[in-house]
Each structure stands twice: as structure tokens, then as C-alpha cells.
Design goal:
The protein is α/β, with parallel strands linked by helices. It contains 7 helices and 8 strands; from the N terminus they run αβββαβαβαβαβαβα. α6 links the parallel β7 (224-229) and β8. It is globular, with a radius of gyration of 18 Å. The relative contact order is 0.14.
């Protein structure tokens, strides 16, 4: 028992340090998109209490839906600060008002607490959209990696409850499922091994026996989807390709954006990466065009 306690303590310390390092590395003022008309922090209602959120209003915001963004980080890391760069650039380039929402992380909160928070935040945002000046009774959903998993889950659920509630979604290198087969087809053998270790850790931290795949959803209810993925250093790209094909097969319009040298997580680095800014501009402009159709 003592050895297990020591191991658990080491694991907690490593996770705490990892979260701190990511926040210091990614929460950089120079990474934020310039020229936004308003940025403010607030709390939204989660499944078990208030959740930190940040609202972004671009100067050209029109009569469009509110975009709710859910951050990535393998369900164990990340928050509205680490993803401030992504959300600010999406607001600037799409012309949409953006609400970035944190959710409870694992292992402190077991799965499906993360989905429960995302559902609660989306319900709150749907009711509050008009107060932000956005189109009422509609949302656009977005997220990267694990956050994209949450975003698409909520998009399909909301469209199940009321068709058209979510007319579009933007999924940035989405985590499609948490399974031992994840990244099995990647050509970089060593990177694949690291990816599988990461998947095993995520599954262990979430503390559940079953994690639904996005492929198991009723994809016919998915909204128009802007789908962004990377190259050899984006180990979910094989799953993204499968998801794109499944969405096409279900009759969903997919705008597929591929960036061969983009690594998984690379969109956070807008302060130093022209590619990150370029890709987020592509995604934002694609959303703007689709909502104007």
C-alpha cells in the first residue's frame, strides 16, 4: 500500500506540474488575436457548480450564433487561459461571438463529468445567447482534441432535441474515441507508442470502463462540420479521416482542412507559428462562409 501511495503522489505531482507548465507556456498575451472589441471573464452554470468562461466579441460581430468553445488537453489539462489564443483567433476570423468554457478535469472528476459540464454550459449558453447580442436559440460548437469530442457530442444531442439548434461545428484535430486501437495506423512507430501510452493514461484518469465513440452517434444529426487535422505529428489524423467519411456517408456537409506539417496541439502556438494563425484563419473564414450560405 505504501508503494501505491507513493506512486499516486508522484503521479499527482507530475500532473500538477504539467498543468502549471502548460499554463505558463501557452497563456501569453502576444498569442491573443488583436483588435477584438470586447474580452471579459465570467462564470457559467456547470453540472456541479460554476465554470470559468471567457467571452470574445469581434468588432464585426453580426446577427450570427454564439460559438461555444471547449478546450482540449486529454480531459486532464487545459483551461480558458491555455486556449485563449485559439478562441481569440476564431472570434477575429469568423466574426462570431465566442464563449470559451472550462470544465472539470480528470482525475479529480471522473467521466462523464466532463460531458455533463459541457451539456450544462451549452444549455446555459443557448439561453443566454440573445443577451450577448448573438442570434437566439442557436449555437455553433467548437473544440480541439478532447474538447472537440465534447463539442460534437453536445452538437448531436442538441440537434436531437431540436433540429437546427446547432447549424455548424468546427472540430480541430478531434479525439474521436479513447480506445486501444487509437493511432494504430500511424506510420511513426515511436510516436504511436507514445500516443498509446497517453491514451491509456487518459482512460485511467477518467475512471470509466466505457467511452462512447463519436462514430457511434447518430451522425445524420451532426451539423455542417469544419474539420481540421495535421500531418504525421497529428496522431489522430487516421481517425479524423474515418470521421469525415462517416459524416459524408450520413449526408453531412464536411469542409475538410488538412495541414501536413501541423502537429497535434499546434494551434495553441499562435505567438510563434504562422501556420497556427493561417489554419485558424482558414477555419474561422470557413465557418463565416457556411453560416452565410
Amino acid at each position: 500500500m505504501e508503494a501505491k501511495a507513493i506512486a499516486a503522489n508522484i503521479e499527482r505531482n507530475v500532473l500538477t506540474q504539467t498543468r502549471r507548465t502548460l499554463r505558463l507556456m501557452l497563456s501569453r498575451p502576444e498569442a491573443r488575436a488583436p483588435g477584438l472589441a470586447e474580452i471579459r471573464d465570467l462564470d457559467v452554470e456547470g453540472a456541479a457548480g460554476p465554470l470559468r468562461a471567457r467571452y470574445y466579441r469581434p468588432s464585426d460581430a453580426g446577427d450570427t450564433p454564439l460559438l461555444v468553445f471547449l478546450h482540449g488537453g486529454g480531459f486532464v489539462c487545459g483551461d480558458i487561459d491555455t486556449h485563449d489564443s485559439i478562441t481569440s483567433w476564431l472570434a477575429k476570423t469568423s466574426g462570431l461571438r465566442v464563449l470559451s468554457v472550462s470544465y472539470r478535469l480528470a482525475p479529480e472528476t471522473a467521466f462523464p463529468g466532463q460531458i455533463d459540464d459541457a451539456r450544462a454550459a451549452c444549455a446555459w449558453a443557448l439561453n443566454a445567447a440573445g443577451a450577448f447580442g448573438a442570434k437566439p436559440e442557436q449555437l455553433v460548437l467548437s473544440g480541439d482534441s478532447a474538447g472537440a469530442y465534447l463539442a460534437m457530442t453536445c452538437a448531436v444531442e442538441l440537434n436531437t432535441q431540436r433540429r437546427g439548434a446547432v447549424p455548424a461545428q468546427a472540430l480541430l484535430y478531434p479525439l474521436v474515441h479513447i480506445d486501444k486501437t487509437l493511432w494504430a495506423e500511424e506510420e511513426l512507430r515511436n510516436f504511436r507508442f507514445v500516443g498509446r501510452l497517453a491514451t491509456l493514461y487518459i482512460a485511467s484518469a477518467l475512471g470509466a470502463e466505457h467511452f462512447p465513440s463519436l462514430l457511434d452517434l447518430d451522425l445524420s444529426l451532426a451539423p455542417t462540420t469544419v474539420l481540421a487535422s495535421g500531418g504525421a505529428l497529428d496522431p489522430v489524423r487516421a481517425d479524423v479521416k474515418t470521421l469525415a467519411g462517416a459524416l459524408h456517408g450520413a449526408g453531412v456537409r464536411v469542409i475538410d482542412k488538412k495541414y501536413p506539417v501541423l502537429m497535434h496541439g499546434g494551434l495553441n502556438f499562435t505567438a510563434v507559428s504562422k501556420l497556427a494563425v493561417h489554419a485558424l484563419t482558414d477555419v474561422g473564414e470557413a465557418l463565416k462562409a457556411e453560416l452565410a450560405r
